[in-house]
Amino acid sequence: MKFEQFVGQVQNRARLPNQGETMRAICATLETLGERLNKDEASHLAAQLPPGVGDYLRLAKNQKSYSLDEFFEQVAERQGAGVDLPDAVYHARVVFEVLQEAVTQGQLNNVRDQLPPEYNVLFEAGSEGAMSRTG
């Protein structure tokens, strides 16, 4: 997937008004994910994404053990003023949905293996409808 396709898919699905807000959502989600993964896994995932998108996974300075709720809070904080928690959760869901279309299943499995089971909803929920937080 090319940069323009990735960004365009996120912008369209998240119904964001411009590329700047779309890039903030992508950056916030992927940078936070990069902190949750070990450096090697973040780098492998980044290698399968377009330049300018995957690079955000490599911004992490330290690995962190975010719970899913903390992950969403960090994504909201990184998106900045004007983005509330429900919007940040939705943006993260969209980014994860497009991410899954852009990389191999094997790479996704490697990423999922590094995350606690509570993160499974991000891979399964997609961007439409309610997101069940049961497991």
Describe the protein in words.
There is one protein chain. The chain has 135 residues and is an all-alpha fold. The protein has one domain (3-124): Globin-like (Orthogonal Bundle). The protein has helices at residues 3-14, 19-36, 39-47, 68-79, 85-102, 105-114, 120-124. The mean pLDDT is 92.
From the spread of the alpha carbons, the general shape counts as: globular
CATH architecture: Orthogonal Bundle
β-strand number: 0
What share of the residues does DSSP label as strand, in percent? under 5%
SS class: mainly alpha
Q: Summarize model confidence as the mean pLDDT.
A: 92
What is the number of helical segments per DSSP (H or I, 4+ residues)?
7
Radius of gyration: 13 Å
Key words describing this protein structure:
single chain, 135 residues, mainly alpha, Globin-like, 62% helix
In short:
With about 140 residues, the chain is an all-alpha fold. It is about 60% helix and about 0% strand.
Please write out the topology.
Layout: H1 3-14, H2 19-36, H3 39-47, H4 68-79, H5 85-102, H6 105-114, H7 120-124
Helix pairs in contact: 1-2, 1-5, 2-4, 2-5, 3-6, 4-5
